[in-house]
Amino acid sequence: MQSVKTSPQTYTRVAGVIFLISMIGGFFGELYIPSSIIVSGDADATAKNIVTSNFLFRLGFAAYLVEAVGDIALSLVMYILLRPVRKDLALLAAFFGLVSTSVFAVSELFYFGSSIFLGEAQYLKSFSPSQLNTLSMLSLRMYGLGAGIFMVFYGIATGLRGYLIYRSGFFPRVLGVLLMLAGGGFIARNFVLVLAPAYASNLFLAPMLLAGVSMTAWFLVKGVDIPKWEAKAATAA
């Protein structure tokens, strides 16, 4: 197997592919499909959508699983690419990335679990259909809340990676700036959602879209400056 010290470009391409897959999975699993199923404030309509579009509902969870697998792999790949800059911070970013994925996985359990209340199990017969619909909606509400109030972990991981990219010399500094802004947006939205939820706009997340697209395009098309990466790795060693 070729050493990472002589093939950073391979890891960069892999990171680009993972970024792309994770963005697609995240779009369908966290945005498009849930918004197509969940009707805000209407438990009965939401329950009807889950039952009548059950495959689409499950597809949303499957898309999230693809994203989660990608995020876990990305924690390792980005650590390998960025450890020549500062190994301790690269490792810390990997830890925060893994924690953010784990916490969001718990939130996704509430998303998938909402369908249990709408099943045909005998133990559910003691509840009325309206009560079951409400319990299902409550589970979805917990999913949304959990996904929002723990964004700080993902924000810190993103910000640290942005800082390391900015300091690296083998990636454009503008990518690092975009990632730091994206991380700051996640952290800011997290605390606004906790302290002043009425102002928790999704506009806080806009920098991540720009950063994600830019990172994916650069990693796939241009890649890493190999001589500078190798020089940095030699200095770190």
Structural class: mainly alpha
Question: Mean of residue pLDDT?
Answer: 92
Compute the separation of the termini in Å. Answer: 21 Å
Low-confidence stretches: none
Number of strands: 0
Shape field = elongated
Q: How big is the Rg?
A: 20 Å
- Biggest sheet character: none
| Contiguous helical run count | 9
Helical residue percent?
Answer: over 70%
N to C succession of SSEs:
HHHHHHHHH
> What is the total domain count?
1
Give the strand content: under 5%
Q: Which descriptors would you attach to this protein?
A:
237 residues, single chain, elongated, mainly alpha
Structure description:
The protein is mostly helical and 237 residues long. The chain has one domain (4-230). 78% of the residues lie in helices and 0% in strands. Helix 6 (151-168) packs antiparallel against helix 7 (173-195). The chain is elongated and about 70 Å long.
Give me a quick take on this structure:
With 237 residues, the chain is mainly alpha-helical. It has helices spanning 8-37, 43-52, 54-82, 87-113, 129-149, 151-168, 173-195, 206-221, 226-236.
Question: Topology, please?
Answer:
Elements (H helix, E strand, L loop, with lengths): L7 H30 L5 H10 L1 H29 L4 H27 L15 H21 L1 H18 L4 H23 L10 H16 L4 H11 L1
Helix pairs in contact: 1-3, 1-8, 2-3, 2-5, 3-4, 4-5, 4-6, 6-7, 7-8
